[in-house]
Design goal:
By secondary structure, this protein is mainly α. The protein has 9 helices and no strands. Helices cover about 55% and strands about 0% of the residues. Helix 4 packs across helix 5 and helix 5 packs across helix 9.
């Protein structure tokens, strides 16, 4: 197939893909101490090992959740890497990994290259202004670990800011504070990912 036809099919596919959910999150001025703390969280290196208590715990968790992602991520190696990274980054930020999976489901539908109409990018729909505020402009928000590191750090920041109120923190994350639709969607998706 000629390159021009492939490009046309790609553009049609992108046009028909469901839109990412990200709302109108606005850039806010962070205090120096919050900015420093978030910058430190973003700059940590990748772990040498996943954040599970044991290899058996890791295998149980992956075995339980991996089949639920087969449609979105057909490649088993990619799926396991994705889930392991979600577990590590969520746990590292003090978040429930299944909550983060629910947020990703709502935000991007597990599409790595999702871009919202507001310009948010990747799995967790991170707004580009965050790279300037707490990271580095050259950070690639489509990179799995980078996107999850930012998204989990930002959600943790909003949870702290809202004194643990998940409903309000999710509203801030999406830029829809005070509206129930988005937090309720994430909470509903979270229930789907919970282990029974």
């Amino acid at each position: 197939m000629p390159a021009r036809c492939r490009l046309g099919l790609l553009l049609i596919g992108l046009t028909l893909a469901p839109a990412a959910w990200a709302g109108a999150q606005v850039e806010e001025q962070l205090s120096a101490s919050v900015q420093a703390m978030m910058q430190h969280s973003i700059s940590d290196r990748a772990p040498a090992k996943p954040a599970f208590g044991s290899d058996q715990e890791a295998e149980r968790w992956l075995a339980a959740l991996s089949p639920r992602l087969t449609r979105q991520l057909p490649d088993e190696h990619q799926r396991r890497d994705f889930l392991t990274t979600v577990h590590y980054e969520a746990s590292r930020a003090g978040l429930d990994p299944q909550l983060v999976l629910g947020l990703i489901e709502v935000e991007s539908g597990f599409r790595k290259y999702a871009v919202s109409s507001a310009g948010a990018r990747g799995y967790m729909q991170v707004m580009p202004f965050w790279t300037k505020q707490i990271g580095a402009p050259e950070h690639n928000l489509f990179h799995l670990r980078t996107n999850l590191r930012y998204g989990c750090t930002i959600l943790r920041h909003y949870l702290d800011r809202e004194n643990g109120d998940l409903f309000r923190a999710l509203g801030r994350y999406n830029g829809s504070l005070g509206q129930a639709e988005y937090p309720n969607m994430v909470k509903g998706a979270w229930q789907h990912w919970m282990l029974r």
